[in-house]
Amino acid sequence: MISVISSEWYKLRKSKVLLLLLVAPLVGLFIGMSSSLGDIGAINPWYEKLVMMNFTYAVLFLPLISGVLASVICRYEHQKGGWKQLLALPVTRGKVFLSKYVLLLLLIFVMQLLYLVSIYLVGMIGGITEPFPMDIVWKTIVGGWMATFPLIALQLWVSIAFKSFAAPFAINVIFTLPTILVINSERFGPYYPWGQPFLMMNIGGSAEDFFFVPWDQILMVVGGSFLLFFIGGYLYFQRKAI
Amino acid sequence: MIFPLIQSDFLKIKRKGMWLLCLIGPFGVVALQMVNYGVRKDYLFEQMDDRWLYYLLNINTFTPLAIVLGIVILTSFMSSIEDETNAWKQLVALPVSKRSVYLSKFTVISCILFLSSVLLFLFVFGYGLTLGLGEDIPYLRLMEYSFLPFFAALPVLGLQLWVATISKNQAIPVTLGVIGVIFAYSAPLLPDWMIWKWPALSNDWGHAYINALLGIGFGVLLYLLGMVDFKRRDVK
Amino acid sequence: MEYIVETKNLTKSFGKEKAVSNLEMKIPKGEIYGFLGPNGAGKTTTIRMLLGLMRPTSGSVQLFGKDMKNNRIDILKNVGSLVENPSYYPHLTAKENLEASRKILHAPKERIDEVLKLVRLHGVRNKKVKGFSLGMKQRLGIAAAMLHQPELLILDEPTNGLDPSGIIEMRELIQSLPKEYGMTVLISSHLLSEIDQMATRVGVVTKGKMIFQDSIETMRKIAQASIQIKVNDNEAAWRSMLANGQKADLGEEHINLQVEDDEQVAASIDYLVQQGFSIYRVQEETRSLENIFLEMTKEEHAE
Question: Is this entry keyworded Ligase (chain C) (predicted)?
């Protein structure tokens, strides 16, 4: 298993995927620097920045870019019979699918860390003197990451199914855009998988649980949709005619 | 000279779902407001005396995003059709100028986007009528909010088509598109010179048509830059 | 002589690497020109420049006596081509694929059925190309190249992926083109045997340079058999023969005799016997075209 993952990583290493990860902190810097929310009555200026930055980042950027990463990770196999070559090696299809998925998780985690750096930079440039609220920031970084688990499972599925980048991206867009509206609804928001990255990264959320979202919601919505998309993609890949 | 090429390009986009996207885009924008107004109509009616205008403003929070993303998807589709088996070499070896090859792609995508704008107009108008927003239907504004974003987005089309045609790896134009949509979403925070702000139709002068004019001007400019670059490159 | 294709000092560099260097290609009308060379010799790059897909770094390309630089579109109206792997639109049917090109070429609609029959794809005309075998895709590419009945047909490795019967069919089709339509054909390959069976002229390229260009007969002449003779004193015998006005080369272990017919062989041996040499062996050595081709390209590699 580890060898399959490391082979996947080896294929990606020299591609531009690492540059792609750098887009996240750049976008973070852009949102952080351009927003001038003024006084929203937050306890400290870090919170202000976090509210602003996490909003745009989690509602649009994170879901969309994870989909792009999922397509990137299938790119070599879609070129000139790459699937044939990969699956002719002594590996099971299940392992290939799982390896690609795990590598995606790792990449997105790295991207989240880079985004964390950009939050810190924005604060430094903005001259915030209060101590960096690491405990809260950690929760949003890890929480946002966990919320992408089901989304990238679906994107991996459609990226395996379609050769082009445009088709999986179109599907991603169709699900991601409504988030802007859905998260306003207290009734539907908590059940919309594409809304979860925002809810997990929104520091104004419920403060009683470990994350900013109650555990049962994480388990049910994130866990449930993860199982649905992951198993769906896994089974699809098992049956896909190569 | 150019028409056979355009016909041929329309033939090539068959079965790729691009016409479906042309429909989904405007429909999605209006459908989101159907949900919005369906859930909290009374609250939304209280927000502004001019209910039609408020409705159009609500529509226009999504139109720029849908257009920018639509452009990203269509341009990427368009070039992946030629990229897939490197059909560029076969296409350019036909008796056509590379300039018209590029112009044809630009034209076909513009047509699809324009058709989307027409559909947007019809959907917005139709759903608006059922909402009971008032007797005075602001036809002019309705037209503005349906068609001006298309013209204002032409520079984004010029840029995305350029990057999509010259990139072997479609991750590049798509990522640029993701950045673009973040810009479009942050439009109120952007300076007026940034092209991604224009489809939102807001500017310091307060005239929406300025965005459309700027869009046409810079759209043509970016189109020309892309075309010259495309012509210059060897076909592998 | 009227040349359909003529390149002058054609050169293409990628960075420091010269893929094609000072190539002078001349193809007279009505010929089937075999463009031979090992993989990576610069054949495809040359063909791309002939089609105006790439710009030469220096030198010029003239087709039908017109310069490619200024008359690209005019020239391409009379050129059909299939470059490297066939290009097609997998989501379209065979017919739709041809239709996409036909519109641009302004060929009559009936041509689609004609060319489909010509390459035996008429039965699957309404099937998506996605499911075609490599050979079918290749044939579809040739059909597309013939749509507008071009005067010049450029085929880059056209038998790639074809099965033996497909190769024979393709050969017969190509051979019929000059006779029936007055077409000129440029066909590239890395296999000499393939070119040998249909070409009337040959150009051999290696490392971007044209090292041989002439009719196939001339190439065959080089390949003609030579007679090897081994005697008790090869060198003395060789000198004696030269003095007698016979053409011969001195090899390491024998004398190579260049002769045109059997009578000459007999005369030479008769002469050697008269001179008192003991003849150990007389044998015939045939050099195949393949050997010549390998020798030609090997010399270049050794540089």
Answer: no
Candidates A20, A61, A181; nearest CB to B171 = A20
DSSP A149-204: HHHHHHHHHHHHH-SSSHHHHHHHHHHHTTHHHHTT-TTTGGG-GGGHHHHHH-TT
Q: What residue numbers bound the domain in which C152 lies? A: 3-221
Q: Are A104 and A69 within 8 A, CB to CB?
A: yes
Query: Least CB-CB distance to A60: which of B28, B181, B190?
Result: B181
Q: Of B5, B19, B85, which to mutate for an interface test with C (greatest number of C Cβ within 10 Å)?
A: B85
d(CA A179, CA A55): 11
Domains identified in chain A, total number: 1
CA–CA dist B196, B64 (Å, integer)? 8
**C81 and C210 together in one domain:** yes
Regarding whether C274 and C160 lie in a shared domain, the answer is no
Closest Cα in chain B to C148: B94
Round to whole Å and give the CA distance between B178 and A65.
7
For an interface test with C, the pick among B11, B16, B80, B89 (most C C-beta atoms closer than 10 Å) comes out as: B89
Please give the pLDDT value at position A37. Answer: 54
Q: Residues in chain B, how many? A: 236
Task: Decide if B172 touches A, using CB distance below 8 A.
Answer: yes
Q: Pick the range with the lowest mean pLDDT from A211-215, B1-5, C17-21, C118-122.
A: A211-215
Stronger pLDDT, B28 or A51, i.e. the higher one: B28
* Nearest CA-CA partner of A64 in B66, B62, B186, B174: B174
- Picking from B39, B69, B175, the nearest residue to A20 by CB comes out as B175
The CATH number given to whatever domain includes residue C239 is 3.30.70
Query: Do C190 and C270 share a domain, yes or no?
Result: no
Q: Are residues C133 and C241 in the same domain?
A: no
In this prediction, residue C303 has a pLDDT band, given cuts at 50, 70 and 90, of: very low
Q: Which domain holds residue A29?
A: 2-239
Same-domain check for residues C144 and C212? yes
The pair of structure tokens assigned to B178 is 């993701």
Nearest to A174 among B24, B72, B171 (CB): B24
Distance from CA of B110 to the nearest CA of C (A): 20
Shortest distance, CA C196 to any CA of chain B (angstroms): 28
The Cα diameter of chain B in Å comes to: 62
* Residue B199: closest CA among B108, B106, B65: B65
What ipTM describes this predicted complex? 0.94
Instruction: Compute the distance between CA of residue A103 and CA of residue A116 in angstroms, rounded to an integer.
Output: 20
Order of strands across the sheet that contains C209-215: C79-82, C152-156, C184-189, C32-36, C201-206, C209-215
